[in-house]
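Below is how a single chain appears once it has passed through the pipeline. First comes the sequence as given, then the structure the pipeline wrote out for it. We keep one example in the README because the format questions we get most often are answered faster by looking than by reading.
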Amino acid sequence: MNAISNIKILLFKELKDQFTSPLIYSLTGLFCLLIGWLFFNYMVLSKDYYNETLTTSVIIPIFANMNFIFVLIAPLITMRSFAEEKKQNTIELLFLSHLGPWQIIIGKFLAAWIVAIFMIAFTGLFPLVLALSGYSDFGVLFSSYAGLICTVACFVAVGIFTSSLTNNQIFAALLAFFLIFILMLLVLIMNVSYNYLLAQILQYLSSSFHFQDFVKGVIKSYNLIYFISFIFFFFYLTHESLDSRNW
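Resulting structure:
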């Protein structure tokens, strides 16, 4: 219980820092403007696709775009997590507190993830618009949101890790973007591989492959296992990165 209380204390501190930063509101505004414009265009164009449902003409492309936008946004949300602490020389004070390394990592991760979910929440108008347009397959819509939130959690975990490597926020953001982009492209590399086993491994390692299942309305156990394993793997890398400061 004490560990949970410690995480809550750090979480609230991090959320306060995040939501007092103009960067978050600027990113949220840009995200809403861009994704709202795309959604409007997909809805208008869907009237011309008589052989397609709203799922294929609107939901799949809009969630694919949201997923890609967060490839760019997640590194910006997480870049200051540890990099700023290192730059201000406050990271040692953080570790001298009652917080353990894992509690610090989880607290910072949750704060950045909640900020991302806050941004996604502004798309809550989309289901209402779709319902007024006659859409009724809300199971697909729910699974799409679930897939997006899980994928963004992976992006945030990568960003937390890269932020722990440096005291330069820009470098942390660029490195996170590079790693996330590579993980998404693995599914494309798989298509040009002549080795079946290698192709299957690369496909499983790609976040895009698992996200696609959610957008299709399919939630499989191996998708959830992938996301959980992915997040904890980068938690472990972050822990090792922070631990290396004592070498």
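DSSP finds twelve helices and no strands in the chain.

See the next section for the split statistics.
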